[in-house]
Amino acid sequence: MKVIALILAALAGTATAADCGPDKLNTSRTITLKREGAAYGANQNAVLPLAKGEVVLTFDDGPSFENTPAVLKALSDQCAKATFFMVGQNIAQQPELARRVVREGHSAGIHSDTHAHLASFTVEQQLEDLKRSRAAYKAAFGVETPAYRFPFLEETPALLDALKQANITVASIDLGITDWLPDDTTAILAQRLSENLDKAGSGIILMHDANGPTAKALPTLLQVLKDKGYKVVHLEWQ
Ligand SMILES: [Zn+2]
């Protein structure tokens, strides 16, 4: 029976409970948020109720055929759960990969349909982008998205209003690691994460599963969290 469980776990790419010992980063607790028009992330909104030393891992811009699988592997290896803010067009292109993210125990929200600077759009265009990204999410997952992150964190009044009416939580960030510069090495990203953690002390961390340097660096980044004694909090929605 144990052998079968191990084989199934290996096929699913997820660590078994037995593998998730104290040597792993792990997920310390889950916060279940209501499906409501709230907005979190101290960068521009209310602070999530996190204790000092607690962090929420978030990954934007995927799913990416090239890079998301490596991110999933690194998270699975450390038994850490995250939230992925997916671009609608990417979900439509990679629905199976999008579903795999959720199957492995992570949460998923949307991050616009085309990752445009929405503030430069007319209100109609903004609402159309939201409609398309929600439809892509629903087509892949069979349910409405519970959460939204603005591309470039550029919130617009029209979309804030529409999201509130649709009971979709706006998820901003508390800290990032500026992980979109093509020349970034694992050492640079790890250093940036360490410094920004020291400054913030806790919070929602923004990273990008669609970016190669981030995917490559993630095992090291998770080790930085573990070495510094941070605890991973997983976000779920009712
Ligand atoms: Zn983005």
UniProtKB/TrEMBL annotation:
SUPFAM superfamilies: Glycoside hydrolase/deacetylase. It comes from the Bacteria. PANTHER family: CHITIN DEACETYLASE 1-RELATED, GLYCOSYL TRANSFERASE-RELATED. Residues 1-17 form the signal peptide. One of its GO terms (molecular function) is hydrolase activity, acting on carbon-nitrogen (but not peptide) bonds. Keywords: Hydrolase, Metal-binding, Signal. One of its GO terms (biological process) is carbohydrate metabolic process. GO terms for cellular component: membrane. This is Polysaccharide deacetylase family protein. Residues 53-233 form the NodB homology domain.
